Hints:
mainly alpha
Amino acid sequence: EVFSLFIPKPFRFFILACLGFYFLALVLRVNPWIGMIGALAYAYSIYDPVIISVGHDTKMLSIAYLPATLGGLIMIFNGRYWLGAAFTALFSSILVYQNHYQIVYYFVLIIAFMTVAQIIQWVKDKEVKHMITALGFALVAGLVGITTNAMMLMTTYDYSKATIRGGQASLN
Length: 172
């Protein structure tokens, strides 16, 4: 994987989390020094070394890519449609590729609340054209992120029917 920067794990997890959060901080126009501190705090929070030490690599990678994906979406909402869509598509694709649906579920909750709040603001400001354009770009970028992983998603869905969580497996 190119984004591993050819750095051995577990160090790559922390570096990717730092870079993802720093990207989000830059998109939010946070002072770069404060963004660096925030990125370090995000990557080295107490939870991250714990999940890495017990082998939850995909969870940590999902946590690392989540802020970058959010940053791409915010770029779209701020009117940087093409660049934001490219980042959203790229990072959502990598996020879904990690195959850790708990973190993806949390991400969807975050963007759902954020999008509803943004829609309310756009309607108040009478920015309907911008709203439609931004939502269209965001939808397409999100679909690209999902469809690039369609084979894996369908295989996981098909397999889940035969598991205890899928409801079909017997405990006999």
